[in-house]
């Protein structure tokens, strides 16, 4: 039995010896946190892709890029690992032009095979009947109002009671005998939402919160089964039927074009050719046709969302010089505290800031289906619980978003490499009070098209006005007030590039500012004040009704 030290022993002891022992123990403890062989020394869970000669350490592409982005570390020499790396979860830089059917890089078959892992399968007629049943049941359900409240009592019992009530509405039978039916109908709702982001605006949130709660172990024990099934994609269907090689055929490029009146016959002939060539007993022609149409739906989604970013980037580079402003009215320079701005940028710096922001939004929308699948996996993961807390915007489910975070940082790193020097913060809020969960993240960036498409439509209206294709009295009004349609277009663009990217929208730099999410917050803040702009009558004359109104904000 050790003898306790006396007061005299403590006073006469050497404290430096104890400190040395403590430091040694701390160093020894640190050695236990070893990096797995072949993995990144920073995140420890991704394959090493680059080796820094100065740091003498291995990094994955994302961590290496973030650590060596600024300061003296930017001068470090990095060598690529000799091993070949696989495509990053759909975040491939290959771009496909759905309108022309051309690929900007070699290997369309490999690219489309990888991309189809995240393209949901188009709903059949029978599945659409189930969808209407699900939407009706979710519409009358008060699930979130009953569950996401701060009150005493057993929350698990309340969750189970609400799930049973909804399932009873759907089936009208003993729900425990219909596990596959419920898995199927809930999967149809999730699949439909990914392909149609503008649908199920309130019902989808209830659905995901219900499925999120149903994944808890105690809830599953009381229910007796799981109601979550993987989302059915083009890749999973073709792979299960053993005909994944159909995507290697050159005719897939033609068969998955968007429907253009002049090329519709060519598209339909290509589809029929592929169905006849690759149909089997296990994989009938109708399934192949459905898969090809689903890929075409993805291209239509890209045209409606991603292409708006391309058009705005084109306007930015065509109408504005990156070095100097054409005039004071068309200068992009902003000053903190003036006109609501919270950032101070020169014209050149603001040009680069807007350019890289639009480029990032474009890449996020290009891989939106992949991000949505990652968000679905994060929200419905078995061991990923959420915390119900007041974030300043009501009670929200705050939950870690590991898969979405990884994918978003890969896209950000890819954008940073393409645009060069980065302006502003590169922080992506996820799982905090700003962006509580993956569902909020997806919803935020699905709004990019709702912001940009109405602006693009107004710019197209002004181009037609300039070419004499619109009413003469409107052209006279624009001439008198703005000095012509061309000047009106530039004034709209200049104000948008200044005021929608000025760090506004909140009273601190954590909620807004130049961070990745703050850039979108500033854009929404510009939308909220559109009625005060001097060019607002031009918006109304072009048919604009709002950023959340009819199709693309137009009547």
How would you describe this protein?
By secondary structure, this protein is mainly alpha-helical. Among the domains are: 18-80, 30s Ribosomal Protein S18; 125-223, no CATH class; 367-446, no CATH class; 447-553, no CATH class. It has helices at 7-12, 15-31, 61-67, 108-115, 125-140, 143-147, 155-171, 179-195, 203-214, 217-223, 234-240, 251-255, 264-278, 285-319, 347-366, 368-379, 402-419, 438-446, 448-466, 472-482, 485-499, 516-528, 536-541, and strands at 50-52, 57-59, 78-80, 96-97, 102-103, 387-390, 395-398. A 3-stranded antiparallel β-sheet has the order 2-1-3. A hairpin with a 4-residue loop joins strand 1 and strand 2 (57-59). The protein is globular. Keywords: Metal-binding, Zinc, Zinc-finger. It holds the Pfam family DUF2009. One of its GO terms (molecular function) is zinc ion binding.
